[in-house]
Design brief:
43% of the residues lie in helices and 11% in strands. With 681 residues, it is an alpha/beta fold. The strands form three sheets. A six-stranded parallel beta sheet has the order 7-6-8-9-11-10, with helices on both faces. The protein has a five-stranded parallel beta sheet with strand order 1-2-3-5-4, with helices on both faces.
Length: 681
């Protein structure tokens, strides 16, 4: 312990944060100045990782919630050698690796993308669940910690309730969160918006809570020591800090704790930039320099961290020598690979709802994929994830031998936790709810896509055929919203999401195969509540034909030189099969039918393949139980899409089919009407 170097290090972090924001003329300096003391003590004395091997699976992890405090992370990691001087000097600039809000970059210590408040610490909860899951299977030597950092804004975000409840309920003693409580947020002081007792709230959820002076290094040290020794509960360290700690005015008087220090360069406030740098011990001419003594301290610290990591690795290697089979299994989990799976062997009764077919697949996966956590938002018996649960058990405080997370009614929290599980690595996360409630999940789905995480989303009760539950539960516009992500590229240049709406049980099985094979982006399965008549096989194996879905779309019914090609996905495919029977028997038309499970994936295929399935020189008719835009990009300007342009109503599904025009007979009439207009033209 060296009080002088500790203070210099914290002040160096403050000065760097101030300089980054001032040079960029954009950012949030005040919060990083308040959190600098905690960050320095955490990383210098408690945080276990290997500087020479940043992706080491058994490292401690730090999950930032308040992404606007990115300069706090960049400054700390600059001291640790993860960033160069030019990196911090080019904060928020084009092409820099120091964006305005942190984007996942494990090689430099950034474990998660953050910015939308509340999600960062919730991902940390997910990582803590993943660590507990693996520890239960491989031993207590796997004792790394997950640290979170949250601000007043994140504490207020509604998602914090779900994260707090679940972490406390599960007794995530490996999760330690620092609450940077400076009583200031972007536009007001916190007393203008809340009067809650944060400590009492978290204690009620089952957390260990300690309140400290967030600038007192000894208090920080003790709080982190106690948190690391806690074995029953997650820990919340409420650090009372000062916004803009160290800021001074031109005449040298203190200018701390003011709201305006939150979200703009301090030179735009009552504080003076140069005088503040001087007050913090920085060189005004070289504000991005690391102080001499601090540089030497961190050089030695990095060597010490590397040596301690080597000791831990030796311990792990000794375990490996004594537990060869377990070690191989652990390596397999961490590889992201799947065991050999025989999807074709999964049996389905005729005419199942695709949610029921999914349940059969999940039951198979529960017996064959050991590193999968499935979660449901209090709907396992409706979204049919109970097919997995029946062959596993729920995660519980003190017992993580199961593989099912009962999330309760908290869709956004659940999806965020899944992102954290994926970020941790070694486990395949699956989350499920009704499709209409994908609206609640959207912020986390978006971060799944941005971070390129292979989370599997299961959405059941698609379209208006939810029936009696009425318009609040009937997803009409949701498919269009989700499929927009198929059109949006991620930073790797790929479609950011894979959305699949299978036509029958065989396609539901293939959709699960596609989701598990997709390890680079999130996937979503959109499944029916009602039973669906199986699509007839053209040959001997419906499953083998359904593998055509792996190209995003294929012909489930193919004739030579068709008069019309019908296009759909999901349960509307079987409606078109019924319509085709009528068209062929009564109208003497030749009909092909395309099932396009994923437009995004289909559009990635060669033009020749796309034209072989949806030929642009033929009349094209699409049928969708959602907005017509779902299929308009496939049938083109000369085609016709019959869909919904209104919300649903409360009535039995079969009645709604009749009222809305979604029977085989009604579809056939609409197709004939369309063909007549084409012929007239």
């Amino acid at each position: 312990m060296n009080k002088q170097i500790d203070q210099q290090s914290a002040d160096n972090i403050r000065a760097l944060a101030v300089a980054m924001v001032e040079k960029a003329n954009s950012g949030h300096p005040g919060g990083p100045m308040g959190g600098a003391d905690f960050m320095h003590i955490l990383y210098s004395e408690f945080f276990n990782y290997d500087p020479s091997d940043m992706t080491w699976p058994f490292r401690d992890r730090f999950f930032m919630d308040a992404g606007h405090l990115s300069t706090l992370m960049y400054a700390q990691y600059y001291l640790l050698g993860n960033y160069a001087k030019d990196d911090v000097a080019n904060f928020r600039q084009w092409g820099s690796i120091t964006p305005g809000h942190p984007e996942v970059d494990v090689a430099r210590g950034i474990e998660n993308t953050s910015g939308p408040l509340g999600q960062g610490h919730t991902m940390g909860v997910g990582a803590a669940i993943a660590a507990k899951f693996l520890q239960a299977r491989f031993g207590d030597w796997m004792n790394h910690k997950i640290y979170g950092f949250i601000s007043d804004g994140g504490i207020q975000e509604e998602i914090s309730q779900g994260a707090g409840r679940i972490a406390g309920h599960l007794g995530l003693s490996n999760f330690i969160m620092f609450f940077d409580s400076n009583d200031i947020q972007l536009s007001t002081s916190t007393d203008e918006v809340t009067s809650e007792d944060t400590a009492a709230k978290y204690e009620a959820w089952g957390w260990k809570v300690v309140t400290i002076d967030g600038h007192d290094h000894d208090q920080i040290r003790k709080a982190l020591t106690d948190a690391n020794n806690e074995t029953e509960k997650p820990t919340l360290i409420i650090g009372k800090t000062i916004m803009g700690k160290g800021c001074v005015t031109a005449d040298g008087s203190m200018f701390e704790g003011y709201c305006e220090l939150h979200g703009q360069p301090i030179g735009h406030t009552g504080a003076d930039y140069e005088k503040t740098l001087i007050n913090l011990g920085a060189d005004v001419e070289n504000p991005f320099d690391i102080y001499g003594d601090v540089s030497e301290f961190y050089k030695n610290l990095i060597a010490d961290k590397t040596a301690k990591a080597a000791e831990k690795k030796a311990e792990i290697n000794a375990w490996r020598q004594e537990n060869g089979a377990l070690a191989d299994k652990l390596d397999f989990f961490l590889s992201g690979h799947l065991p050999e799976l025989d999807f074709e062997s999964i049996e389905h009764k005729a005419g199942l709802a695709t949610r029921a077919a999914s349940s059969n697949v999940l039951g198979y996966l529960a017996e064959n994929v050991e590193n999968m956590i499935v979660s449901s938002a209090d709907l396992s018996n409706s979204d049919k994830t109970d097919g997995f649960l029946k062959k596993s058990s729920a995660l519980q405080k003190g017992d993580f031998s199961g593989s099912f997370l009962q999330a309760g009614v908290a869709e956004l929290t659940m999806a965020c936790i899944a992102n954290g599980i994926a970020l941790h690595g070694g486990i395949i996360p699956v989350v499920a709810t009704f499709f209409v409630f994908s609206d609640y999940m959207k912020p986390a789905i978006r971060l799944s896509a941005i971070q390129e995480l292979p989370v599997k989303y299961v959405w059941t009760h698609d379209a208006f055929r939810v029936g009696e539950d009425g318009p609040t539960h009937q997803p009409v516009e949701q498919e269009a919203q989700i499929r927009l992500l198929e059109k949006l590229k991620n930073h790797s240049g790929n479609a950011s999401f894979l959305a699949m709406r299978p036509a029958d049980s065989a396609e539901a099985t293939v959709a699960w195969k596609m989701a598990l094979d997709n390890t680079n982006t999130p996937s979503g399965l959109i499944l029916s509540r009602q039973g669906i008549k199986d699509v007839p096989a053209q040959g001997t194996s419906r499953y083998q034909e359904a593998l055509g879905a792996e190209k995003g779309g294929y012909l489930v019914k193919e004739v030579e030189n068709p008069d019309v090609v019908l296009v759909a996905n999901g349960s509307e495919v079987s409606t078109l099969v019924a319509a085709a029977d009528i068209l062929e028997s009564q109208e003497n038309l030749k009909v092909s039918i395309a099932s396009i499970i994923s437009e995004g994936l289909f559009k990635e295929q060669s033009k020749e393949y796309q034209d072989s399935v949806v030929p642009k020189d033929k009349p094209l008719f699409g049928l969708t139980a959602g907005l017509p835009v779902n299929l308009e990009g496939l049938v083109g300007d000369n085609g016709k899409v019959f869909g919904l342009d209104h919300f649903g109503y409360s009535a039995p599904a079969g009645v709604l089919d009749e009222k809305f025009g979604f029977t085989g007979e009604q579809a056939s009439k609409n197709i004939v009407e369309y063909l007549n207009t084409v012929l007239i033209k």
